[in-house]
Specification:
With 116 residues, this protein is mainly α. Helix content is 87%, strand content 0%. It is elongated and about 75 Å long.
Amino acid sequence: MVAVVGSFVTAAIAQYAAASGRRMRTLRTAEHLASQFRRNWVSILSATLLIAGVCLLATVLDVTEGDSGGVHWMVEAALILGVARSYRLLWLFNAVIMATDRDLAERASDSSQLRT
């Protein structure tokens, strides 16, 4: 799961880095927006690593038939965090796609106006 989430994050960051329209330029250079956007990506990546670590720790700690240490609570908390971060990842990915699409649409309409 970490690899899947990591590949989504990598694809979104690559799209963010490759986009060169007005909206993406504003997103990258506006002090408040840029820092907030980067903080969101780092937060998603950090949470993904934390969730993977908690699940690995739970696997190591789960050595008995019963759950004397509350390992299942640890896994359930990690899964809830994973769901919340997945929703945030989808929101960010959608925001990047929408901004890129709008920039491309503007470029296409500008070039068609120049031809006529």
